[in-house]
Design goal:
This protein is mostly beta strands. The protein has 2 domains: 25-130, Immunoglobulin-like, CATH 2.60.40; 135-239, SH3 type barrels (Roll). Helices cover 8% and strands 48% of the residues. It contains 1 helix and 18 strands. The strands form 4 sheets. Strands 5-1-2-10-9 form a 5-stranded mixed beta sheet, with no helix packed on it. β15 (204-205) and β16 form a beta hairpin. The longest helix has 19 residues, at 2-20. Residues 12-20, 132-164 and 238-246 have low confidence and may be disordered. This is AMIN domain-containing protein. Residues 1-21 form the signal peptide. It comes from candidate division WOR-3 bacterium. Keywords: Signal.
Length: 246
């Protein structure tokens, strides 16, 4: 009888703690991808990665990304990369208590420019060599959409979009950067929720696609009720960081 009473008391104590326990994110995979001179380190989680910090040590050429409330579930601790820009990627459980955190170190072989963009369940680290053509606005760009000045697009349907639609809504997006390298151009954008998007020419957006990526602007072709129209998002020239290799 005493054993049953003790078991019941322990259950009463632990059950509320289990209910209140914070669910932890699993960092389950890290991938390295390269398109032309642009590299992407994709940190893939079991849910959106929103609580993170990044620190670059230029003298050591190491970028550290700390992810809070996370558990390290990746199959490797250190991955050597055969690349002239990225040398290695290492990761481990950094803290266990009071709240777990994951630390990922990216070792570079040269000076780099980088940007972190959270996607659906991935934190993308976009890297290219320093002093190449890169334009990133320190104030997250400026929004240009006809003369709406940030108000709702009058052409946008009032009905809510289908559940699960993850395409970028251009009418409420901000252009935060443009990267050019050779024949490859990438547009870096954020939606109103802070979700990051990396788009190339021809990629789909809600109601259309990317028509062109220029030096300081991105052109979209959208279709509404059978009518096609162009929308341009721009970076302000005086707020862009620019460097060109000769």
């Amino acid at each position: 009888m005493r054993n049953k009473t003790k078991t019941a008391l322990v259950s009463l104590i632990l059950f509320p703690l289990l209910l209140s326990a914070e669910p932890f994110l699993n960092v389950k995979e890290i991938k390295f991808e390269r398109t032309g001179e642009i590299r992407e380190i994709l940190i893939i989680g079991s849910a959106p990665i929103t609580r993170y910090r990044d620190t670059l040590k230029p003298e050591e050429k190491i970028l550290t990304v700390d992810i809070d409330s996370a558990l390290y579930k990746v199959s490797f601790r250190n991955l050597k990369i055969k690349d002239e820009c990225v040398g290695s990627i290492s990761g481990a459980q950094f803290k266990v208590t009071p709240a777990p955190s994951v630390r990922i170190n990216i070792k570079f072989n040269t000076d780099v420019e980088y940007a972190l963009l959270p996607k659906t369940d991935t934190l993308a680290v976009i890297v290219e060599k320093a002093k190449e053509t890169i334009r990133i606005s320190p104030v997250l760009g400026s929004f240009f959409f006809y003369n709406s000045y940030g108000r709702r697009d009058p052409f946008e349907p009032l009905l809510s979009q289908e559940k699960g639609d993850t395409l970028l809504n251009v009418g409420s997006a901000m252009l935060v950067g443009i990267i050019h390298q050779g024949d490859t151009s990438l547009a870096l954008l954020k939606d109103v929720n802070g979700m990051g998007f990396v788009l190339r020419k021809g990629d789909r957006v809600r109601g259309g696609s990317v028509l062109d990526i220029r030096d300081n602007e991105v052109v979209f072709l959208l279709s509404d009720y059978g009518f096609n129209r162009k929308v341009i998002l721009k970076l302000e020239k005086d707020q862009s960081l620019e460097g060109r290799s000769q």
